[in-house]
Amino acid sequence: MLFVLSNRVLVPLSLWPLGGVSVWLGPLLVGTLLFGFAAGMVAGLPKHFHYRRRARAAEKKMAQLSEKDAAASAKE
Fold it and tell me: What is the rounded distance in angstroms from the CA atom of residue 48 to the CA atom of residue 42?
């Protein structure tokens, strides 16, 4: 908040099809940072889900092997 309030210099922002506008530097930088963070999270979600799926499959296989081992130990 202090960064936003201390950077109240107006800077021109031009977006090609939309035209231009003057905005405060602080909120522009914070907004750009938040947008980049959100875009990175969205871009990383497919890989995150892939690893979660692999981890769940590994846990399920471990549980099956543990049950199989416990059944084999009970027979002995």
Answer: 10
Q: Indicate the pLDDT class of residue 33, thresholds 50, 70 and 90.
A: very high
Judge contact between 57 and 35, C-beta under 8 A.
no
pLDDT digits (tens, 9 = 90+) for 35-63: 999 999 999 888 888 899 999 999 999 99
Q: Which domain holds residue 12?
A: 2-75
Look at the chain and report how many structural domains it folds into.
1
